[in-house]
């Protein structure tokens, strides 16, 4: 088995996922671009290869469980292990206005749509990939959360997110943070570290051009946690090296 680190990044054909793959590749990590279609995944991988990154593209729509086993088989056959899993794929509500308080009118359909990608699929995919991550000398699981998942900050009237309450998205990220804490506890006696990331408010399709952070900066926290040393944290909520409150 090669000493070369291998990373799988979900939702990696554009935005934060693509930039995370690029930055990991620039640090010498072999990256597997996961996207909803094979064409999109391979096209993104080809772009990275042109920049000298060792990149591969696979079809892996996190909400399609039929894609899981082929992805596991691909990684097993080609690499025999997975060192880094960046659970980057995520969605917001289909009708989302930042700052709009519509808690009592949030529909069951919206909750199911957002939770299916941001929590249920993420947990299921991680479970399928965990045996491969356990074969790594230093497994790292990075869960893309959001400061909007912080119950502590939401409960403080003067916090920077006090007026940004979108129940479906915020609750899905809070639940994802619970998964991070619980999985880190289960794996505490292993070489695997599990952390939640707040990338920042970033100029992506979801973040819009109103966001203050560039994509290059938004990917930095994920990359840092993907490459943590043995003395690094686990079961934590991090943004650019600073710990956030749950």
Summarize the structure.
The chain has 246 residues and is α/β, with parallel strands linked by helices. Helices cover 39% and strands 14% of the residues.
Q: Could you explain how this protein is built, in words?
A:
With 246 residues, the chain is an alpha/beta fold. The chain has one domain: 3-Layer(aba) Sandwich (Rossmann fold), CATH 3.40.50.720. It is 39% helix and 14% strand. It contains 8 helices and 8 strands, in the order βαβαβαβαβααβααββ. The chain has helices at residues 15-26, 38-50, 68-78, 108-133, 151-154, 167-186, 215-218, 220-226; strands at 6-9, 30-35, 55-59, 84-87, 140-144, 193-197, 237-239, 242-243. An 8-stranded mixed beta sheet has the order 3-2-1-4-5-6-7-8, with helices on both faces. A hairpin with a 2-residue loop joins β7 (237-239) and β8 (242-243). α1 (15-26) crosses α8 and α4 (108-133) packs parallel to α6. It is globular, with a radius of gyration of 17 Å.
Amino- and carboxy-terminal Cα gap? 38 Å
SSE sequence, one letter per element: EHEHEHEHEHHEHHEE
Tally of DSSP β-strands: 8
Total count of domains: 1
Q: Report on the biggest sheet.
A: 8 strands, mixed
Work out the strand percent.
Answer: 5-15%
By CATH reckoning, the class would read Alpha Beta
**Major beta sheet, strand line-up:** 3-2-1-4-5-6-7-8
Average pLDDT across residues? 92
Rg estimate, integer Å? 17 Å
Question: CATH-wise, what's the superfamily?
Answer: NAD(P)-binding Rossmann-like Domain
Portion of residues in helices? 25-40%
Approximate shape = globular
Family: Belongs to the short-chain dehydrogenases/reductases (SDR) family.
Keywords: NADP, Oxidoreductase
Protein name: SDR family oxidoreductase
Pfam family, one: adh_short
């Amino acid at each position: 088995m090669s000493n070369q680190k291998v990373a799988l990044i979900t939702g990696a054909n554009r935005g934060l996922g693509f930039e995370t793959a690029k930055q990991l590749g620039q640090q010498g990590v072999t990256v597997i671009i996961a996207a909803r279609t094979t064409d999109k995944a391979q096209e993104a991988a080809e772009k990275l290869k042109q920049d000298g990154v060792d990149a591969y593209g696979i079809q892996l729509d996190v909400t399609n469980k039929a894609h899981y086993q082929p992805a596991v088989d691909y990684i097993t056959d080609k690499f025999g292990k997975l060192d880094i899993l960046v659970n980057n794929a995520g969605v917001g509500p289909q009708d989302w206005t930042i700052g709009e308080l519509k808690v009592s009118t949030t529909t069951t359909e919206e909750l199911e749509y957002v939770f299916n990608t941001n929590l249920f699929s993420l947990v299921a995919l991680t479970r399928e990939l965990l045996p491969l991550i356990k074969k790594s000398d230093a497994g790292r699981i990075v869960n893309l959360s959001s400061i909007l998942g912080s119950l502590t900050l939401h409960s403080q009237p003067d916090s920077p997110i006090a007026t940004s309450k979108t129940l479906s998205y915020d609750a899905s990220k809070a639940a994802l943070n619970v998964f991070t804490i619980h999985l880190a506890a289960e794996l505490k006696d292993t070489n695997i570290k599990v952390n939640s990331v707040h990338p920042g408010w970033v100029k992506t399709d979801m973040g819009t051009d109103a966001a203050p952070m560039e994509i290059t900066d938004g990917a930095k926290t994920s990359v840092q946690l993907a490459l943590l040393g043995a003395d690094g944290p686990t079961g934590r909520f991090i943004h650019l090296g600073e710990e956030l409150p749950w």
